[in-house]
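Quick one: co-fold with nicotinamide-adenine-dinucleotide.
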Amino acid sequence: MPGRLAGRVALITGAASGIGRESALLFAREGAKVVVADLDGKAGERVVAEIAAAGGEAIALRCDVARGEDLRAAVAAAERRFGALHVLFNNAGIFPAQDGSPVDTPEEVFDQVMLVNLKGVFLGCKHGIPALLRAGGGSIINTASFVAVLGAATSQVAYTASKGGVLAMTREIAVEYARQGIRANALCPGPVNTPLLAELLAKPEARARRFAHIPMGRLAEAPEIARAALFLASDESSYVNGTTFLVDGGISGAYVTPE
Ligand code: NAD
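Sure, here it is.
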């Protein structure tokens, strides 16, 4: 049976770990050829080896999404190696421990988070959209977060602001390119069990404070978010465009959660 992404080429940033890694494995299982782009080139190679062992096709590139030149090169590699680019998944992101309230967050931490989480998505779109247009259209998935739509009293102000920016930017791209066959959606996961959250959740009080607000009483697992990304990447979501695609276990619907 042909996969849900048969014949497609996908570029995934931050694909060496967590949500990006699970998405790379899943997209490849569904027939996509995958460009695994990550700051950690060695870990990216390991993902490619896993894909190859399962009979799929992928290449790994060391790529810093803060650098336009790296993204230009990643898009060029997708077209050179696999002939086109159809799916652009701007997923790489950081969540530094020093990111806190507006008063406490060091300026350089704010700048770094904006550079990777927001400008990195802009640069992915800047270099990826021309390739999607050359392919006759495609799907852009930009990873925002549930924090783009809800405030927290224990803030990570730079992270939250960066994800709000991703959400707004994605809507605009979705509107601008809709008639040229490009859909763009902001994937907004709730808290996910990946290395990104490990440091925060290692502190018992921080863990308890967050779990109290999750109706399902557990974190998402990365494959649950990858399956949502697969839907947005595939033609099954052909009329889904410009959405705030929340995959948050009901957090954004909750007023009071069960004890
Ligand atoms: P993760 O830390 O497991 O993986 C992130 C990957 O991005 C890593 O492989 C890392 O090397 C890579 N990366 C970091 N900086 C980079 C850069 N400058 N250029 C290229 N690659 C870079 O994290 P994750 O939980 O899988 O997060 C993926 C995305 O999902 C992020 O955008 C994150 O903000 C978002 N998100 C995560 C959660 C969560 O709870 N884990 C919730 C909502 C949104």
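If it helps, Strands lie at 9-13, 33-38, 57-62, 87-90, 138-143, 182-189, 244-247.
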